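Follow-up to my post from last week.
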Amino acid sequence: MKYIKFIIIAVLLNTAFTGCSYVSDYVEGAITDRASFSVQAEFIAGTGVQLSWDKTDTGGNFAGIEIYRTSEENDEYANYTLIASRYSDSSLAIGTTKTYIDTAPPSGTYFYRVGLIHWDKDTNERTAANGYIPAYEIPGWDGTTNYNAHTDLDKVSGYGIVTIP
Amino acid sequence: MKKLLTITIAAMLLLFVRPLFSAVYEASTLHNSVSRSETVQDLYLKRWSILQDKNFYFDIYGKINWIFNLDVNTYNAGTQETEATKLKLTRTYGSMTLAMPLGGYRETPEGKDFLIALTTTGFHYGLTKTLKVNRGDAGSESITDYKHSQFFDDIYAFTFMYRPYFTFHGGLIYNNECVPEDDGSMSYTDPVKSYRKTFFGIQLYNAMAFSMNIDDGKPESTKLAVDINPLAGYLTDVSNIYIPFVTVGVERTAAYNDRLYDSVWVKTPKDTSASYSPNSATLNILSLKVVQRLSQLFTVEGFIGAQYIDRSIYTKTDSRKIDVSASKEWYLLLNFNPVSTAADSVKIKAYTGISWYWDPAIAIHRKNPDKGNALYGWIFGADCDFKHFGAEFKTEYNFSTELKTLLEASDKWSVEGSIFLRI
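User reply:
Got it. Predicted complex:
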């Protein structure tokens, strides 16, 4: 009987894994910050570039959303530069936000990405002993010094391409 | 933890990566499912060669291998042109085995027991592009996009062991190809191509290992390895650790099939602008491996392989007949691996060595094609195997065992790390 139980558990586990190739790739993708969700970019005359994405983040370590744009036009492989964060637009401090408008985009073809940012420690570990400045412990305050020193890119979108006249 | 990992990876890059100026690839040249099946099967059998003497219930193993700076013709949605782009070849490997003794595990390595096991082993293989993201005062981070087709090869296998006499492995190999979105992301759920092959392996008396994979009813790859020492042990005493351990191997692979991604034409050069009847050639390899203990701390390992290709092969670049070398491969490794004093004790190994490897595709993938089809290589690595967990690390440049699985690694550094958990 115990062997039958073992075989059933093994088959279930094997089925659950549905191929170690996918699991191992998923792990490598998490280590190297692989693009894991999509963003759409659309130019609206008089408004700017409207971005919309299909991912939210309500985890306990969520620190903010960041918006990036390629630093050079017409190059998919150019470096990306930060254009907005929770400190320039308060809606980006909310994990359920799924849109953003870049009101002053430059002319040309550009690529946008969305990053989901996490604190490097759980809530109860963001203390002076772990390098956080003490002011962090004041409720509701999480100042840029801590943010810049203690956050990582947790997930990043693929690119959204847009041509701005 | 993630930061620590990033720093470690960055340090590896600083240490080992140099600018390289190799050939520009079409991604399609990396699509050979024959060699990928062999690779996932080899990885499976290699893992089992470690597990077969252990008493365990669960083993999980993961490995990541990166090869940097492959120039691959890749579309740039900004310039709207296809251009040589530096990509990273990412190979990941995962394995999970559940084992159960029928009637309890043996207490000594000489004892007898029955064991059944289920294993799923997977190998991902694909190109990725690394990009920089400047987060302002929060610093810079790297991100990666999938580029070109991604390949996912999995084995689902059943193992029956009657130790120390007999082992049977049998299962299915699935090759899936997924195409990423233009934006660099990808869904696993919708492969554009899928193949299924069967494979089996038999081991007798811990001395003879035979394996075969079968595609469409025909054997694609067949391997036989015989360890001489356990057989000689029936005639004389071979327990002295200073007696060299000798293994003889024979391989037969349907290696050249006139496919577009093959590096050579078989029998006659073909004109790809018209339809043609493909020919096949079989690669036969006869090999000899000797491991000699030098002292309580060191061993030396030598391997030499001779080859015979049963039909003429021709270059695709200028239709020239290729003069096939009688030697396929040799390597020499110096290992620091102290003699174990008890079963399941801590095993630590560090090794370095040189190699030589011949293949008709090397001229295509090396920096200077005029230098021919053979390459000398170098390796450095270290393994630690504690009772329930362990890790491996290696870096290599043109080492033969790496070129055997991926010729595109010619004249490129390769870095690999792996960890395992065994209960």
